[in-house]
Amino acid sequence: MSRLCVFLLIAVLLDPMFSITFYLPANSGKCLQDNIYKNVLVSCEYETALYFNVKNITDSFGDILYTQENATKGNFSFATENHDQFDVCFNSRSPMGSGWVPDQLVQLDIEQRTPKRHLEHLSLSVADDFIHLKKRGEEMQQTNSKLIEQKCLNPPIISIISVCCFLALATWQTFYSRRFFKTRKLIE
Q1: What pLDDT does residue 176 have?
Q2: What is the mean pLDDT of the chain?
Q3: Is the pTM of this model over 0.70?
Q4: How many CA atoms are closer than 13 Å to the CA of 182, on its beta-carbon side?
Q5: Is the pLDDT of residue 165 over 90?
Q6: Which helix (H) or strand (E) holds 112?
Q7: With respect to CATH, is domain 2-114 assigned 2.40.160.20?
Q8: I need a surface site. Which of 3, 92, 111, 160 has the fewest CB within 10 A?
Q9: What distance in Å separates the CA atoms of residue 63 and residue 53, rounded to the nearest whole number?
Q10: pLDDT digits (tens, 9 = 90+) for 136-150
Q11: For 150, how many CA atoms within 13 A lie in the half-sphere containing its CB?
């Protein structure tokens, strides 16, 4: 059972759209809650078996985003200005004198997606970054080629100078150590 729950959780997290189906008893109501990010478009489609119901979509402040009465099928979409939480509520009413009313089957599909303008802005930003990186790469190549052409000091000359400095330092250290130990009378 736990593996099934993990599998379903992964499937829900990877898909920005989720569907839910439930039975709504007569003269009752059910609400579903979900979080929504700023400027994210939420699209919903619903279908109910009978038309004696009321659908309400409200945000966390209690503002009504959508309401519909006595409809068996429909869709709606909305976006909020802030990171918010919204409630999707279905209320079932049986008409007076109708007797026993079976439970209503309710199907709800909710999809959250970013606006196309936002995606277009992101793609243009990525394209501009690639153009900038290409330009920087060309500038670095030009700088490297100029340094190679100038040949300020050839690498072999720099190596010879480094070895000579090392030998001079080693010779001086040898004479200094010898004089130090003679003054301490450790060697003759």
Answers
A1: 94
A2: 78
A3: no
A4: 7
A5: yes
A6: strand 104-113
A7: no
A8: 3
A9: 20
A10: 999 988 887 777 666
A11: 8
Q: What is the CA radius of gyration of the chain?
A: 38
Tokens of 81: 């200005």
Any idea what DSSP says for residue 119?
Answer: H
Query: In Å, what is the CA distance from 116 to each residue of 41, 51, 83, 126?
Result: 10, 34, 19, 15
* Residues 150, 14: Cα–Cα separation, whole Å: 56
Asked if residue 174 has pLDDT above 90, the reply is yes
Neighbours of 25 (CB within 10 A): 13
Instruction: Please give the single-letter amino acid code of residue 62.
Output: G
Encoded tokens for 13:
């997290």
All residues at 6 or more sequence positions from 101 whose CB lies less than 8 Å from its CB, including other chains:
26, 50, 52, 94
Look at 130 and 121; give whichever has higher pLDDT. Answer: 130
Tokens of 56: 């309400």
Q: Is 45:91 a contact under the CB 8 Å cutoff? A: no
